[in-house]
Fold this sequence. Notes:
Blueprint: H1 19-26, H2 34-41, E1 46-49, E2 66-72, E3 75-82, E4 85-93, E5 101-103, E6 107-110, H3 116-119, E7 129-134, E8 139-145, E9 154-160, H4 172-184, H5 188-194, H6 196-201, E10 206-211, H7 216-221, H8 224-232
Antiparallel strand pairs: 1-2, 2-3, 3-4, 4-10, 5-6, 7-8, 8-9, 9-10
Amino acid sequence: MASPSGDTAVVSGTGDPFQAQKEAVDSLALEQSVESVNSKLGVPKESHPLCSKISSCSQDTSREPLLNIYRDEHYTVRAVFDANGLNFFAVTTASDRFKPHIRWLYDLGALGEFTYEEASAADGIQPTAVMIHMGPRSSACAEIVSVGAPGHYQGLMLGWAPDGFGNLPWDIEGAGALNTKQISSSDQQALLAAAGPFRAGSVPNTVGLFLDDGGTMSELLHDPQNAISILYAGTHL
């Protein structure tokens, strides 16, 4: 996954059976064309108008963003494009053996090996919104980190996709506490405070980047409910 400065994350190790997949994921960068992404990930398994998956999305259909879902045995990539290129992409690991190296403003480490709290451990970097969904058949979570210009107008999304690898730490008590707080409050500062135990004890199976430039995706992803809706796209759950 390329950094805002344009540097590409290095995939270490030799004889890695997932080298090709990791290199494909690492080469993704915002504003790439759909043709460029298809050349890296192959033909998408599904394509949907974005607004068909997000109820709060309202867009002129002639300019509506497109949500492509790319699947490999070991990962899923959800990517949103508009006429100018890639606005958002999220990589979900589907295997405990596929752990791509993640770099944003700094090195986060291997996906599946850092908690939500550890991912935003740099000085001055704090999540700006969080939401959890706990349903009878599946759960999902999305945490948004929006820092504007200091982040080179690239926001970070950490999440739990219901179709991702599920055998990662998930603090059930912390999740329940956050879910309970959501019922009584929509204030993000209160929710972020309530999310502390969950963030410290849980590991995301998904990480994404989005253009945090005041455009359509920026506005949509400032609400983590919309990120959760995207993470459910293609799951049939």
